[in-house]
Specification:
Rossmann fold, 2 domains, 345 residues, 4-stranded antiparallel beta sheet, 8-stranded mixed beta sheet, 12 helices, alpha/beta
């Protein structure tokens, strides 16, 4: 595959890349409240903080309904104004994205910040050929003509592994497989070489073989270009193979944060421990049952007066239902728990 569509940047190593640079994206006290007429306000995201550095992949992990996708939509400025309130700061390269006008955010989206959505079929326009959907981004943000943008679009499709890109430029989304559609979305997101890429469950609807190829592609792009990547997923297998740092969300708050290897080796929050215990392991004895987390995400207590996870927590003690645990950071790990897991997995 040709690499002319995206100019690679040489980095010595991932660790030096992360430690020697300031955060490209710094989210502080991000809150998203949904207000519907005749209903009580619902705070879907409650004081989320995290950083992403150039060339770093940061994961937002949790079950459906924990606030992952809402966080990404708030960062991108894609939540509708009506009935929603977003507060806090989202600093991107020194600029608070939440302070920008709609027009200013439209100028940044696609050019500086891009997003790959979960469902490629609903994200692509069904009546416009793939080539035009790629070139219109180049025309909008880089001022290129359709004629000049077409070969760049072809190179982008080649870059993301779509075979016979010249022919595929003329194809409509329904003529592509699910894996190709997801690759086309990634090509559109990468068209203007954004410095920050947000991927919201980009492999959920794909089979495991295509999933592995998409993840390998994302990993390669981050390494080659120094792009900062926020990976939103419920799949810990994705996290294990891609993310440098992991943020575990529950009930709209981060309950644990850590470097990938440390967090997988010794999860401290009972929720993180439960997520890891509920997935199959190759080294598990034959016939061993998985241990699912009891209940559902709707079985919550309000964070204002308790730990939201307490009703589902095997480590619950009296204080868990009486006092909200604070997020305590120590030695590169952050934990929000009154009674952490001591067992080393």
């Amino acid at each position: 595959m040709t690499n002319t569509a995206v100019s690679p940047t040489t980095h010595s190593s991932s660790s030096s890349r992360h430690s020697s640079s300031e955060p490209l994206l710094s989210v502080r006290d991000l809150r998203v409240t949904f207000q519907r007429q005749g209903q009580e306000p619902f705070e879907a995201v409650q004081g989320v903080n995290f950083d992403v550095r150039p060339g770093q992949t940061v994961g937002l992990v949790g079950e459906s309904g924990c606030g992952k996708s809402v966080t990404s939509l708030a960062i991108m400025g894609l939540l509708p104004d009506r009935g929603n309130k977003v507060s806090g700061t989202v600093m991107y390269d020194g600029t608070d994205l939440l302070s920008l006008s709609d027009q200013q955010m439209r100028d940044k989206r696609g050019k500086d910040i891009a997003m790959v959505f979960q469902d490629p079929l609903s994200s692509l326009n069904p009546v416009i050929p793939i080539g035009i959907q790629v070139t219109e981004v180049l025309e909008r943000h880089r001022g290129m003509s359709r004629k000049a943008a077409t070969p760049v679009a072809r190179e982008l499709l080649d870059r993301v592994g779509i075979p016979d890109p010249t022919r595929r430029l003329k194809d409509y989304p329904h003529q592509l497989s699910g894996g190709m559609r997801q690759r086309a979305l990634i090509a559109i997101a990468l068209a203007c070489q954004p410095r920050l890429l947000i991927a919201d469950e980009p492999t959920t609807a794909l089979d495991v073989t295509i999933q592995a190829q998409i993840l390998a592609l994302l990993k390669e792009l981050v390494q080659d270009t120094g792009t900062a990547l926020v990976m939103i997923t419920h799949d810990l297998g994705v996290v294990a193979g891609l993310c440098d740092e992991v943020n575990v969300l529950y009930g709209g708050r981060i309950v644990e944060r850590g470097e990938r290897h440390e967090l997988f080796a010794a999860p401290k929050h009972p929720y993180t421990h439960g997520l890891l215990a509920s997935i199959p392991r190759l080294d598990a004895p034959r016939g061993q049952r998985l241990t699912p987390i009891p209940g559902s995400v709707s079985d919550n207590l309000p964070w204002t007066s308790a730990c939201a996870f307490a009703p589902r927590c095997p480590n619950q003690i009296d204080v868990c239902t009486q006092v909200m645990p604070e997020l305590v950071e120590q030695h590169g790990r952050a934990l929000r728990c009154h009674n952490p897991v001591e067992e080393v997995r």
